Amino acid sequence: MSDLFDRPFEDEDDEIVHPPPSAVDRQPTAVRRIFSVSDLTVAVRDLLEAHLFEVWVEGELSNCKIWNTGHLYFTLKDDRSQLRGFMFRSSLRYLKFKPTDGTRVIARGKITVYEPKGEYQLVCEHLEPQGRGALQLAFEQLKERLQREGLFDQARKRPLPALPRKIGVVTSLEGAAIRDIIKVLQRRYANAHVVIAPARVQGAEAAPDIARASAGCRRGLIRPPPP
Which of 35, 89, 158, 195 could form a disulfide with 70 if both were Cys (CB 3.0 to 4.6 A apart)? Predict the structure, then answer.
């Protein structure tokens, strides 16, 4: 009996058997995951928001428009691409300048996807003019707005007496400003009658609160600010 190890690896008489094509076709294949358009859009949105939750983007404003909801819609672009942007009214009111077409800005926000159209966009939380002159631009726009409102008209100005009998101060009772005012008045004009009208000086309620306190000063009816 011949030893098995004495045989060659392949005898000429051995027949090589290939699997039939049907056997190859029956091999398991990878399972396909099929998304709906909505599911894929949501998956893309979640990826973008997870990795680009805070970005700074530089570009030029175009198509700026504030809708009747108070929200700002705009396009941020450079010489090769463009990005749609959106800013909620709650963030827009804190800007120190008015966004206009052609202004070069730096925007901070997060990237997300507007699902109905499948478009990615920037939800902007902060916007500022870019480079030197940014503060000057904000100041000039504020000055122009106040000028249009007639607040700089000579007819609205009243002469100040050299020694006023009563001085009204509209400010917060918790700030350092009121202590500084009283300290200076005691040193320079101790006989002045000071009327203090408490008011909020920061936040969304500051403007109407200051207006209320100013009107109270003029009428001599000083009431505490609402809670």
Answer: 89
